[in-house]
Amino acid sequence: MRALTPPSLLRRAVFCLTLSLPAVAAQGQNLSGESLPNGPEGQLHRALELLEDGQLDAAILEVDQLVSKYPNFRMAHMLQGDLLLARAGRPTLAGPTGADPDPFAELRAEFRARDRNRRDPPPAGFVPRNLMRLTPGQHVIVVDASRSRVYLYNEQGGAPLAVRNYYSAIGKLGTAKEREGDKKTPIGIYFVSSHIPGARLPDLYGWGAFPISYPNEWDRRLGRTGSGIWLHGVPSDNYARSPLSTDGCVALANGELADLAPRVQPGITPVVIAERIEWIAPEALRQESDDFQQTLDQWRRDWESRNTENYLDHYSRNFRSDGMDLATWKARKRRVNADKSWIKVELGSLSILRDSGTEPLMVVTFEQDYRSSNLSTRLRKRQYWVQEDGRWKIAHEEGVSRSSNGLPDSFPDGRRYAYK
What is the Cα 220 distance to its own chain's centre? Predict the structure, then answer.
């Protein structure tokens, strides 16, 4: 008969890694699209569930298989060593005593982030409040910095559907990037601008990279600086990076970035980065989306009506566009509309995303088909809507241009390197 390890010793084995993980049940259920469910994180979760069930030997076997299959998974090696010490009755990896630095601190942080996803996933059936409306078939990447998590959603039947979720790392000094070199990950709504294969990059970036459009139009308006924020992989000798370890980019395991890649469309796929995702019931999200859609539709109808004053009432007192302030914009629109006998505006490929910053902000992107008695144009446009006097109003509007691909601060000898 197998000798049973005392439950207190098993709990202590887990404490060695987490420093404080109470044995509580998860508060919800995992998203329907678990990231690579048969992959390393799923195997890690099974090992921890066995450990909590008092099956130390079975947990060790599961972790042995995990490190055998993924020999560069350093955190799993630490767990393996801790469990073996637990079986010997000597779990000693709880961290150094006194003033000595903890050599396993980054691995423990990774463990805590991964185990939080297992124990306390987002509430079942809820979705990020950011995803107001997606273009049919569109994928969107959502980064929850507080959870070290990247979620992938797809538009299905007018609602966001969970597809995958992945562990991730962000900037060494957290979020809310303001300036070049501050080692922070930006908060905002961005778009993937291109794909750079790993073969064209140093091993630091692993499988490859997807540069995103930081700084966006709103960042530049607020005076934020820097560039070269990427979603990228990790060095080949490591399975993953610790939660706070990049110079501002978002880093995923190479296999998981490769899994994400087929669903990414440069120029189309949004990347929502939030300090903390607000989860909301789909019905509540749909109501918020419908309410905002009415405001957007009224803006379009007022434009078509050629009632220029009603149309201009949709613009914020702090409006900016292509170097114009509100007064200049109004004068231009009054002059242009006076020359037209009719106007027709259609909005295609529409997406509406709520920014997670400190102030209410909607980012609206669409293909604008404008026709009038003397002009017809088509262009991709982006608007930033703010709350002003209890109403949503347009604070910024301009055509969407191609984003440049800057180099991250971590790029070795970047000034002399060209990856194109």
Answer: 20
Does 242 score more than 90 pLDDT?
yes
- pLDDT in the model for residue 24: 31
Domain borders along the chain are 7-119, 127-280+403-416, 282-399
Distance (Å, whole) CA 239 – CA 182: 26
DSSP for 95-149, please give it.
Answer: ---TT---TTHHHHHHHHHHHHHHHSPPPTT-EETTEEE--TT-EEEEEEGGGTE
User: Which of 390, 220, 388, 399 shows the shortest CA–CA distance to 318?
Assistant: 388
What are the strands, taking DSSP E only, across 264-420? 270-274, 279-280, 315-321, 324-325, 343-354, 361-372, 376-388, 391-399
Residue count of the chain: 420
Is 282-399 in CATH node 3.20.20.70?
A: no
Distances (CA, A) of 8 to 5, 15, 52, 82, 118: 8, 10, 11, 15, 21
Cα 333 to the chain's mean position, in Å? Answer: 37
User: For position 89, what pLDDT does the model report?
Assistant: 79
pLDDT in tens, 376-398: 999 999 999 999 999 999 999 99
Q: Which residue has the tokens 């110079």?
A: 247
Instruction: Give the mean model confidence (pLDDT) for residues 188-213.
Output: 97
Contacts of 389 (CB under 8 A, 6+ apart): none
CATH fold label, 127-280+403-416: L,D-transpeptidase catalytic domain-like (2.40.440)
* Segment 264-306, tens digit of pLDDT: 999 999 999 999 999 999 999 999 999 999 999 999 999 999 9
Q: How far apart are CA 105 and CA 358, in angstroms?
A: 31
Confidence band for 409, pLDDT divided at 50, 70 and 90: confident
Token output for 153: 């959603």
Within 10 A of 325 (CB to CB), how many other CB atoms are there?
12
pLDDT tens digit sequence for 351-377 = 999 998 888 999 999 999 999 999 999
**Within 10 A of 264 (CB to CB), how many other CB atoms are there?**
17
Residue 56 and residue 75 in contact, taking contact as beta carbons nearer than 8 Å: no
- pTM, 2 dp: 0.89
List C-alpha distances in Å: 112 to 24, 148, 274, 288, 351. Answer: 14, 10, 20, 34, 35
Q: What is the C-alpha to C-alpha distance for residues 366 and 368, in angstroms, rounded to an integer?
A: 6
The CA-atom distances, in angstroms, between 162 and each of 140, 152, 298, 331 are: 10, 6, 31, 46
